[in-house]
Amino acid sequence: MDFSKHLIQWYLHNKRDLPWRKNSHPYSVWLSEIMLQQTRVAQGMPYFFKFITAFPTVNDLANAPEEQVLKLWQGLGYYSRARNLHATAKYIAYELHGIFPDNYKELLKLKGVGDYTAAAIASICYGEPVPVVDGNVYRVLSRYFGIETDISSSPAKAEFRALAAKYLPRDKASEFNQAMMEFGALQCVPKSPDCAACIFSADCVAFTTGKVSVLPVKLKKTKVTNRYFNYIVVKDANGSSVVNKRSGKGIWHNLYEFPLIETETAVPEQEMSKTICGYEGLGFIPQNVSLLVDTVVHKLSHQHLHIRFWEVVTNAVVTGAMNRDKIKQYPFPIVVHNFIEKHWD
Fold first, then answer.
1. Are residues 189 and 240 in the same domain?
2. Any domain includes 220
3. Spatial distance between the Cα atoms of 215 and 229, rounded to a whole number of angstroms
4. Cystine design at 131: which of 147, 164, 269, 306 (Cβ 3.0–4.6 Å)?
5. Residues facing 307 on adjacent strands
């Protein structure tokens, strides 16, 4: 079977009607590819529309305040993508006069753009015959060709990239790369794929040898760290509260949150209440401390955050406190945003 020919034919008959496929403009393709890193299309689509509406061109995005960019990104996760997106927009707008690089090597120089994203933009927008290699591509190739190389190992990327390049038609790079990604997303899915309905079932090594469930091989396990967050929701004499901007390295950089006490382990409620009462970072002695929301577990790729929200009441007027309407305008981690929307009366 001609793998490339049949794959492209399948794609042309089954591809989804996605907005960034309308014109293959580098701005919309770049925006979609950054958003879809670690994110499903269904989740990313509303964000794509929000960004295109707010920032129709790369210059519009470049000229936007970072807080507006982060606010629109709120809930999509992996916020470094948004910061890199903004930085790259500025570079393209101010240094490259609004014109995207038109080849793989130059695209790789953009902040937040790696091998996969550069190859996607170069092939989709400019027809450059460079293969894309992402999770979908690993899965399709490993199953079809029966490759048992551990995809988390160092040699895997080069091996799969070379294999994809071997089958990539030089005059149909855009269709082939999008077909590979789409086939992995719709047909050759991670769990319980419908192999009986697959165009490649007769030739797929994984299907014919009963290895669909074990390919691709990924042996490296992600180490998960548990962290314990206690957010202090101040309520002063005016009913105002306090939020801070996260400035340190690590998760949620430049997003806002309530004052935070992080502990090594889960601290009993009574003990934590005393700790909050003695917390000098508040700048006042609380009249009352109460647990508003008990532990919410927020799972990130390498961390599980065990989060509690505490109301701290004072009869004083707290310097720098703001009313709720103003606070809601700031960009927050989604777990804090959800608390504000659902539990903060």
1. no
2. no
3. 38
4. 164
5. 229, 296
Kindly list the catalytic residues: 33
**pLDDT confidence tier of residue 222, bands split at 50, 70 and 90:** confident
Name the DSSP letter for residue 341: H
- Let me know whether 77 and 177 are in one domain: yes
Measure Cα distances from 28 to 18, 61, 100, 117, 307 in Å.
11, 12, 11, 13, 36
The DSSP call for residue 255 is: -
Compute the distance between CA of residue 106 and CA of residue 118 in angstroms, rounded to an integer: 8
> What's the whole-number average pLDDT of the chain?
95
pTM beyond 0.85: the answer is yes
Q: What is the pLDDT of residues 125-143, one digit of tens each?
A: 999 999 999 999 999 999 9
Rounded CA-CA distance 193/136 in Å is 13
Give domain status of residue 308, yes or no: yes
Collapsed DSSP state (helix, strand, coil) of residue 187: coil
Looking at the fold, whether 272 and 190 belong to one and the same domain comes out as no
Measuring CA to CA, which residue among 37, 31, 41 is closest to residue 62? 31
In a domain, 19, yes or no: yes
Span 78-95, mean pLDDT? 96
pLDDT digits (tens, 9 = 90+) for 310-319: 999 999 999 9
- The sheet with strand 288-299 has its strands ordered as 260-263, 225-235, 303-313, 288-299
* Pair 147, 292 in one domain: no
The pLDDT, as a whole number, for residue 1 is: 62
Q: Is omega for the bond preceding 216 within 30 degrees of 0, making it cis?
A: yes
Report the pLDDT value the prediction gives residue 22, as an integer from 0 to 100: 85
Conformational region of residue 98, where left means phi above 0, alpha means psi within -120 to 50, and beta covers everything else: left
Q: Which domain holds residue 288?
A: 225-342
